[in-house]
Amino acid sequence: MTDIFDFWETVLARLGERISPEMLNWLMSHVLPLTLTEDTLTAQVSKPFLKIWLEQNLLSDLQATVNEVAARPLTLQITLPQATDVPTSPLPSTNSTETSTLPEPPVPIFTRPTPSVEQTTLPIATSTAATQDTQVAAVSENERNFGKRSIPIDPSCTFDNFIVSNSNTLARSAAFAVAQQPAQYQNPLFIYGPSGLGKTHLMHAICNYVRAHTPEKKFLFLTSEDFTNDFISALTQKGVEHNRAFREKYRSVDYLLIDDVQFFGKKDGTQLEFFHTFNELLNSKKQIVMTCDRLPENMEKVEQRLISRFRMGLVVEIQPPDFEIRSAYLQKKAAAADISIPTEVVSFLAENFTEDFRELGGVFNRIATLQSLSPEPITVEWAQQQLADILPTERRIILNPDVIINEVASFYKIRRDKLVGKTRPKNIVFPRQIAMFLCREMLDLSFKEIAAAFNKNDHTTVMHAYDKIYKELQTNIKLQEEMQQIRQFLTGG
Prior knowledge:
Blueprint lengths: L3 H12 L5 H10 L1 E5 L3 E5 L3 H10 L1 H12 L4 E5 L48 H7 L34 H12 L8 E4 L6 H15 L5 E5 H13 L3 H12 L3 E5 L8 H16 L3 E6 L11 H7 L3 E4 L5 H14 L6 H10 L4 H17 L6 H7 L14 H11 L4 H4 L6 H18 L3 H7 L6 H16 L1 H15 L2
Parallel strand pairs: 2-3, 4-7, 4-8, 5-6, 6-7
Antiparallel strand pairs: 1-2
Family: Belongs to the DnaA family.
InterPro entries: AAA+_ATPase (IPR003593), Chromosome_initiator_DnaA (IPR001957), Chromosome_initiator_DnaA-like (IPR020591), DnaA_C (IPR013159), DnaA_dom (IPR013317), DnaA_N_sf (IPR038454), P-loop_NTPase (IPR027417), Trp_repressor/repl_initiator (IPR010921)
Subcellular location: Cytoplasm
């Protein structure tokens, strides 16, 4: 069997090609390889917070490198010195009798010293996942007050003024039901759809309803980033009291409303803590409401056990507004602002700005402001002049890998998660290669950057895809036509 230390040194050398020198040095100093079997590599860190930091920032790269060096899938286990010191979730239980001083680990069997907690410094992570999960640790002392992290409830967002149509009626009905009877049938309630369609309005509406009709009920409404910030604040402050305060905040409410849960992706430690919070609330018959920009199964870098729990209750979609609801929205805005807008102008705006309510609201505000400064009456011709720079025919789409991936998936009528997944049927692989080619051609990204966008560890896959599509385009007339159509969609041409 391979010597574990030889194996570990090979892993570190290979991993050094993917991560910064600071992060590599941190691994060398704080992670001790313990055992290597046919199917498992076990390594150890000295403190729980080091384990959490490793899982949040380096685990994916480390796991991929271990599999690469072993030339087979290995289970990577990160342990603490004594099993009794390992909590069942990232933070010590509030019922635990342990003190804030964690036991020191045994002397390592290799020569590198294990620093104490006071000596330990965490490297600045340069990966996307690390940036998302560690930058939030640098919060001010004022923000460390858990009570400060919540979204102020907008009293203007109610069920009564939520404009209902076929595109959102189920979501509105479900939200109203949980506001009236929490933790009955729609628990959790998972509302998904693109940004700007009214998901957050419904969250505010639930809070306003609870505040007005059952004021004795406690609710907490915040974003997934707020939850992450609180979690990291609890980790970075010494003492069981901070951990108890964190759990008390999230597990003592009657309603927990989390906006934009897609941002839990890649944050392994945060996901683990939310998993336990979720279970505790569900077992206590408390209501959970979440919003997301996609279906649970399409969330990236989110654990399967969380995804399965997101689907336990009711999953409802809010679709882009149709012409009637866009018109009704504009008329309601005009009435609230005491502005008279002719019906033909409302129709013109509703026909040309179709994305979401935020876009429509911005267009209305522009029209209202310009009208207040101009003596001219509002006509279709006048509106065309005032909006010439943002009308659809003159818009420029801001391209990024996600936009290209979504457009290619839509063009070939396949699911986005298949395009960025590992499946290899021909009807998936070829569109995937086209999307990779377009990312290279239209965004001028490196092969490594494109590989990351497609969840690939090896950028040579992208190089192969680019070469293949480039050669195909020289002779394949059908592909040339398809590529031209996709480019036109992407450029708005």
